[in-house]
Write a structure and sequence with these properties.
About 0% of the residues lie in helices and about 55% in strands. The chain is an all-beta fold.
Length: about 120
């Protein structure tokens, strides 16, 4: 069973930075695209960023372009999201995601709160 474990969330001030990590196990991490999504209570899931299996192909939603950077380490089976110039509207639970054998797998989520 695929396992995804996020960490790195917390409280940041507007304009601050946080780095999220997701450690993957029990599948061939280097063969699969990975994504970050976020959710605010009472609102739908929002896809934030995606990275291809070898890291050469990345995608960002417009609201985070130029502020967030997705990356991966296929040796350590880890996915990262470097978040800078944080805004209060970035406050959400952030989830690591992959689709493996046509099934969606999610981590437990990590809370990011941006507030002064």
């Amino acid at each position: 069973q695929v396992q995804l474990v996020e960490s790195g969330g917390g409280l940041a001030q507007p304009g601050g930075s946080l780095r999220l990590s997701c450690v993957a196990s029990r599948f061939t991490f280097s063969s699969y695209a990975m994504s970050w999504a976020r959710q605010v209570p009472g609102k739908g899931l929002e896809w934030v960023s995606r990275i291809g299996s070898d890291g050469s192909d990345t995608y960002y939603i417009d609201s985070v372009k130029g502020r967030f950077t997705i990356s991966r380490d296929n040796v350590r089976n880890a996915l990262f999201l470097q978040m800078s110039s944080l805004k209060p509207e970035d406050t959400a639970v952030y989830y690591c995601h992959t689709k493996y054998r046509e099934m969606d797998f999610w981590g437990q989520g990590t809370q990011v709160t941006v507030s002064s």
